[in-house]
Amino acid sequence: MDPVEETLDLSNKKLKKLNKPTPHESQVTTLILDDNELLRLDSIDSFTKLQKLSAVRNQLLRMYGVCRLHSLHTLNLSHNGILTIEGLKELVNLRWLGLAGNSIKVIAFASLLFLK
């Protein structure tokens, strides 16, 4: 990865698991995980500078882990199997949230107060 590169695109890699990033990868500001087979976002909080996260068309059931991404302002988890909107209260910089095409049953409204 180039030292000035801020985006890590891991889309269409048939990933079933998100591995812990290298020290350089952990500094990216944009992470694209679209079109994989991810069930969970393990190690997502290792991406300490993340501002934009996209994990569209995976097999995610929960939003677990994103609550620790305090710099996140754009989150797209559309077209997964997410049932509950959770853990957004801590994301005070979040401005855009995409959850279309999920099976959402429960929404913690307090989590959505920061969205503009």
From TrEMBL:
It comes from the Eukaryota. SUPFAM superfamilies: L domain-like. InterPro entries: Leu-rich_rpt, LRR_dom_sf, SDS22/Internalin_LRR. Keywords: Leucine-rich repeat, Repeat. Pfam families: LRR_1. This is Uncharacterized protein. It comes from Acanthoscelides obtectus (Bean weevil).
